[in-house]
Write a structure and sequence with these properties.
It is a single chain. The chain is an alpha/beta fold. The chain has a six-stranded mixed β-sheet, with helices on both faces. Strands 2-3 form a two-stranded antiparallel sheet. Strands 7-8 form a two-stranded antiparallel ribbon. A hairpin with a 2-residue loop joins β7 and β8. The longest helix has 20 residues. It starts with 15 loop residues before the first helix and ends with a helix. The N terminus is likely disordered.
Length: 314
């Protein structure tokens, strides 16, 4: 779930250009009607929360247990935030820079005072960060996002991209939402993807990509990135369907897999194309079974990589 959000505003209609872009990608990607894991059932939107795109788990009082049989954030290989020390191969993404933003930090739960401090997001103030959600068995979103981010970095580097992570569980908490945006901006990234998983109600299933709305105020101005971010998000959504077999969310985005928001500091403060990806709902047992599967996480990383590559190649 996004680290800097509040309950979403009422559902907005998708801009025609974004819907058309997604439709075009989905036709190529064998359609957006759902995959083998989709249950096809609609569900009422979840209730308000403090730290999720659509709902949230409360900040835990203690450490969350970790289920057996799930990969740790380093299971797919960790490295410096700037990427591998090995020379990058020549590939279709040579000369391109991608910033991957793993949602939350596994140690945020030990620093609740610090992450509750509010920071300026241009149009207001929000908490520095949150703990994120988890499955009912205790598999933390922060572990999931790091694992997928590591896998995604490996795939993009194989294509020649220079990849930077906003963090690699190498700091006690955070980074705060304003710093996460700043990292992408200062890197002059060609694309930034923030990796998350949602914490919604049982029966709410599927993925969705959050796009920046047109926002201008204080230090926030998304006017130059709204269109490019929508293109990036639509391409990711289409490839995510094809590669993972998951359907677009049945509770956010009107079955498009896309949702536009104006209340996320990580998007509002970005000056480069950026999206958030909610890969599934950790609180739904069927989605949780996917999110805790190492093989499915590899598919998720591949879907993200394919979408990013498609966007960067034009």
């Amino acid at each position: 779930m996004p680290y800097d959000d509040s309950p979403p505003p009422t559902r907005r209609a998708r801009p025609l250009s974004v819907a058309a872009a997604l439709a075009a990608v989905c036709l190529t990607a064998a359609g957006c009607g759902g995959g083998p894991e989709a249950d096809g059932a609609g569900a009422a939107p979840p209730g308000p929360g403090a730290d999720a795109a659509s709902s949230t788990a409360p900040t835990p009082a203690g450490k969350q247990p970790e289920p057996s049989g799930t990969a740790s954030p380093s299971d797919s290989g960790a490295g410096a935030d700037s990427g591998s020390a090995k020379p990058l191969p020549k590939g279709p993404l040579t000369g391109r820079t991608v910033v991957i933003d793993p949602g939350h930090n596994p140690r945020n739960r030990d620093h609740t005072r610090e992450i509750n401090e509010k920071v300026d997001i241009g149009t207001g103030r929000k908490e520095c960060d949150t703990t994120g959600t988890s499955t009912d068995d205790g598999y933390a979103e922060a572990r999931f996002t790091l694992d997928v981010s590591h896998r995604l970095r490996t795939l993009l580097e194989a294509e020649g991209a220079r990849v930077r992570l906003t963090h690699d569980a190498d700091r006690p908490f955070g980074p705060c939402i304003d710093e996460r945006a700043r990292i992408g901006n200062e890197a002059k990234a060609d694309a930034v993807v923030s990796v998350h998983a949602d914490g919604s109600a049982v029966g709410n299933r599927g993925f969705h990509v959050i796009l920046p709305a047109g926002v201008k105020g204080g230090g926030a101005d998304t006017s130059k990135i709204v269109k490019s971010s929508a293109d990036l998000g639509a391409r990711i959504a289409g490839h995510f369907v094809r590669t993972t077999g998951s359907a677009p969310s049945n509770y956010i985005g009107g079955n498009t897999g896309l949702d536009t928001r104006n209340d996320l500091g990580g998007l509002n403060l970005s000056t480069v194309p950026k999206v958030f990806v909610e890969c599934g709902n950790m609180r739904d047992p069927k989605d949780a079974a996917l999110l805790t599967s190492a093989s499915w996480r590899q598919k998720a990383a591949q879907g993200l990589a394919d979408g990013i590559t498609s966007y960067l190649k034009g």
